[in-house]
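Fold sample X.
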Amino acid sequence: RNGQWREVGRTEVLEGTLDPKFLERVPLDYRPEEKQDIRFAVVSDDHYVGSLEITLGDLIKARRSKKTTYLKGADGLSSSLHGMIIVTAEVIHPQAQKKEEYVEE
């Protein structure tokens, strides 16, 4: 991270709900030997609502690879005033490499 965050993905925009259920997934490469800090920032109408900072490893190791917590606001405090976030990780194993078959003509 080197002191700065880099955006790697965004969910779809959902309007007219205070309880959004996002379908968009953000794929990340998990490297268990590395500490991978990730941050989920919540924005509503171009207004920063709050965020969750966690390591990818901690999220994957959480019960059911799911983290439910209050958002941390701009004041640096996690509280119900900023809302709640539920984040789930899904480990997808790469497909086994396909064998290429060559036929002599």
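Fold sample Y, listed below.
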Amino acid sequence: QQKAMQCRLLARKLALDKADSQIYQGELMSGLGELLQEIRRAAPGPMKQAATQFRDTILLWINKPGRRLPILSACDTLRDVLRAHGVEVNDSMLSATPWKKKSKKYRH
């Protein structure tokens, strides 16, 4: 499940990144290969099925335009199964620019 979580994080970064996605794509492809090995060793069940579906979806969409929503949907589905099996999964907003608090100027 650790490799599935790592691949999920990379897939989210790939889907949400507005810059050069090649940074995450190579690392994700490598991780998906390692995930396949984990899937093959895993006992049958919902976790194995979810990891397999996640991997298949990412491989289908990784090089296609319009990949953002299918990849994020696959990430959400995997997250839900992981959480249902007691794994803590925290999604964070990834942003190119940090959120800044607007300062209020008071006139005396």
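Sample Y note: Helices lie at 2-16, 22-41, 46-61, 68-84.
Also: The chain has a mean pLDDT of 84.
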